[in-house]
User: Fold these one by one.
Assistant:
Number 1:
Amino acid sequence: QVLYRKNAVAVVAKPPSVPVHASPYVGGTIKKIEEKPLLQRARDALGSRINLVHRLDRGASGCVLCVCIDRCREPQTLTSELHEALRVGRKRYVALVRGTGVFKGQSLGANHTWFDVERPIKDSRGKINDARTSFRFLGYANHLNSDRCSLVLAEPQRSGRWHQIKRHLNGLSHPIIGDSSHGNSQTNRFWREHRGLPAERILLHLARIQIPPTSACPEGIDVSCPLPSDFSKILASDTLTEITTSPIARQLFQEETSLYLPLSKALQVY
């Protein structure tokens, strides 16, 4: 799905469990239609070769900003310009995490306010980089141990380190459901077997990107990507009726993402 398109700039919606490009990590070749990489899907949808300005993990979903190579004279320059604009802009993620928003006896969702986690992160080459992420806990469900979960908004601040959101949430003892790298394998298995979580899916969705004006987009960009059906069905299921009907949570979710939460019946608020 193409969410935004102007001249050589576009934003597309990445489906869950789809790699951004073919690589040895997904077998190197495309053997199944559901594994068709985003790079090829976007090329077909836009009618142009593309550069990806940023990436999402295979199991995640949401907005991906890209450049149409065949529609500009200097695609690499434009890609770099948009990458920098996105770095100083805003990327608003939605995540469903294990836990009820309490860490070391303190409520992470008190007054629904944003708070920052600042903790260095080691990249894939072993280099340590500063990293800061803002979080906002909206509500929680608290049934059985494996059902305990919270709906969270996350925004990396002027950085996009390797697995930054995953690692910072895991450091709060609230790993993202479906995260096989930093999450809880027992919880992930429960959600896959009993809550309909698709294979390879992590409940992390880039819901909105906002970038300041650039030469290619003088008015800037503000684009939202609706929650995919698998995420919406999980939130609206009868087993998670405490997550999405609080007027406060629904209002905050709409204000921060320009989207609506799927309806369920009752919510415990912080």
Number 2:
Amino acid sequence: YHGALGLVAAGGGAGWRSSIFAISRSLLQLWFGVGFCTAGVAIAFDVPGLYCKRACGTIPAFVWTYLGGWMLVYRALWLAKRALARFGLEYKLDDRLCDVIADRLLLGRLTWDIPRLDGVPEVDMVVDMTCEWSEPLALRSVDDYLLTPVVDTTRPTVEQLRLVAERVVGHLRDPSRGSVYIHCANGYGRSAVATAAVLLLGGLCDTVEETVDLIKAARPVVSLDAKRQKHFCGAIPHAQLLHAFIEELGSDAESEETSSSDPKLWCA
């Protein structure tokens, strides 16, 4: 009799554990599923606001409830790529942390500390083009931190490009200020097109093609395109976006006057 009760109790305990495991697995699958679906919506409809990234550069904890599954995988893949690069297994050749594009203007990827290069003034302005990461403390603690959230694989808007370009050029006009670091997750696309807008507004380049060539010469890993054909995925080409940016500047008399000034607006 007592042996039978023991077997029933053991069987009941195993059943509860099995049920808890099944429920936990279902909830985990749901969490990943919701995360990937929400991320898909953010990419398809270009909605960086789903990440709720604050102007100070941090993402609220509650975002992990509906985007956590995607952010976990996204970050794991990014970190794995960086780890493999340390062993010489680079996704792209010459994929450096950052590169100097022009005087006091740096373009690169997400990093945990302020980039420091020989002969380059210390960075005191950071432009963050990501929405999937909370900005590392060192980067968002500079004198001038500007968040311009853009979903990975998408493009900034013309308005965002203008905001970044005006803020950065205004900063670089002051010779007493330090360098500017513009970054996204990898320093390939979002931050590269923002850097192109800076060069155009600052007058260092006159055409989109010249701008793309200059950036690619300094940082070969960028994924900028100088052609205007539409991609199969529907994303607006970089060239078309930059031409729209130039047209926006041309419609503003003040911007037109600025762009026609000294072509080396901030360079020594």
Number 3:
Amino acid sequence: MPEESAAMITQGMPSKRKQELLSGELGSEKVDAIIRHMARQAASAHVVHVEKDIKERFEQCCKVLNVKDQQVKDKWQQIIIDNYSAKRRVYHTLKHIYDMFKLFDQYKHALENSNLVAVAILFHDLVYEGRNREDEEKSAQELRRFGAEVGMPSADIDEVARWIELTATHQVESNECKDCKFFMDFDMAVLGLPWLQYREYFLNVKKEYQGLKSGGWLFSLFWAFGRPKAMGKLLQVEHIYATPAFRERYEARARDNLAKEMNIWWWTKTLW
């Protein structure tokens, strides 16, 4: 067993069990069972951590908005947690907005109104039924409901709702405000991750979307033709990312990932 892997697996393990595992005394089947069990424990712990983080982010947004009504806060916090935790979701989950917030933390210093960006992150995929534009419009409507109930200025509500609706295409004008551009890039950053992480992303999106639809092999055929078309449109734009920072960090790899994925679905189409 490699030293780094062994260190990760045995972290927090009782010393006697750790010695047995590293020495090989337990046998391969027992070791495999222990590793699987610990992996499940780690995954479960991460889910708890992510949910706790999102609740804290929401609470901070409410604090900045000076929301006093605890019942209103509790209601909307639960709506956010429940919607992003729905069983049919695979990619558009709490983990997705958690990942966006990690980027938010890195670029918060560059934002003009960071709380509006945080609210946009929380609400941008609140509704996800696999219907482009309609999902974004419904999510924006939910944001408007929340904003009205907590007393957000109408101009701020309109601005955040507009950003959420723009995620239907993620295409923004060059004169768009900086906060909107960073919000879009936080959402699109997954395209520029290393290939294995990107592959996990698009397979999760496919699984999630397929769970919302029906038709079996008809869905697979639709996906094999439709997904490359969408990816091709992205590759045709001058810039995938709206900010110079994300273009430098992610653009080249994102284009490489998109081209690889298109090739995968192109080969799939040849089988039909």
